[in-house]
Amino acid sequence: MSTVTYQFYPYDKYLQQQRAMSLSQFEHFMWFEIPEELALTCELYKVEELKPTLQIIEDYQGYIQREGRNRWLQFLGDFFNKSAGLHSYKFTFVDTISEELIPLFFAYTFQDDNPSRPYIYMRPRSRIQVEREFLTMDDGEPYERIL
Question: Which among 11, 22, 75, 76 would be 20 to 30 A from 121, CA to CA?
Fold first, then answer.
């Protein structure tokens, strides 16, 4: 099985780069690439969930690992919100030399594989009422007309 990798994006591009994802796409580990120009001098400083609710994620360290100045962040798949709908996150990196804060973003739309509510068209046929009228044609041949 090949490993799927993800990228962070600047604010003006991240919503156009969002992915549609289902539960089967959330692997135990998910890999995110830090832009090359940030990898050597930046550390992850803060994580915020922007949608569906705005909140700072305080305990992200237990879900995210990075070895040294490697360009890859390893996330536990359990880190991400798996409720149906659009989810977006802001990852703020700090440049350890200049102390500049650099925000990068990631977004996805989660599609539930097994929704708890069936769609209306999946309603049992026995509930659908159909009125019928039985007629005969001029030549005496019977036919059915559904009203």
Answer: 22
CB atoms within 10 A of CB 66: 15
* 114-142 burial: b if 16+ Cβ within 10 Å, else e: eeeeeeeeeeeeeeeeeeeeeeeeeeeee
> Of how many residues is the chain composed?
147
Quick one: CATH architecture of 5-116?
A: Sandwich (2.60)
Helix (H, G, I), strand (E, B) or coil at 24: helix
Q: What is the rounded radius of gyration, in angstroms, for the C-alpha atoms of the chain?
A: 26
Tokens representing 46 are: 């803060």
Q: Domain residue spans in the chain?
A: 5-116
Express each pLDDT in 80-128 by its tens digit: 888 888 889 999 999 999 999 999 999 888 887 665 655 554 555 544 4
Cα separation of 47 and 73, whole Å?
13
Full-model pTM: 0.70
Contact assessment for residue 104 and residue 94, using Cβ atoms and an 8 Å cutoff: no
Tell me 121's DSSP state. G
